[in-house]
Amino acid sequence: MKRRGFLKWLLALFSSVALASFVYPLLRFLAPPSSEAITKKLILRKAEVPAGGVKNIIFNDTPAIILNTRDKGYIVLSKVCTHLGCIVEYSRAQNRFICPCHAGVYDLEGNVLAGPPPKPLLKLPVRVEGDNIIIG
Ligand code: FES
Fold this sequence. Notes:
Bound molecules: FE2/S2 (inorganic) cluster
Helix content: 10-25%
Shape: elongated
Order of helices and strands: HHEEEEEEEEEEE
Strand order of the largest sheet: 2-3-4-9
CATH topology of the largest domain: Rieske Iron-sulfur Protein
């Protein structure tokens, strides 16, 4: 292969890679996620979350937490902060969720108590059937 041919081939390769790196994210953005991914359910045993306990879970690829409160039963919240998407942490000492990025503070029902978050944490549907906790 001559030098000119090789350079044309190399240019075509780089152009293809550049085009693919633009088109692929665009298609992923425009294509809606499958309904199966949105409607997955997660089943836990009640024994995994005793009264007053909490458990970190992953629900539909999103960090979440389940609380077994003594007065309101099971509460499941997304751990994704509604400000800029950092992962909030449960503070047992303060009985709150704290966002490490900009000090957003949420109560145990996900309501904003302080900081920049514009809205509460996303509450996920939960129900109890027999010995199981069904999320989603
Ligand atoms: Fe949580 Fe900013 S991302 S307060």
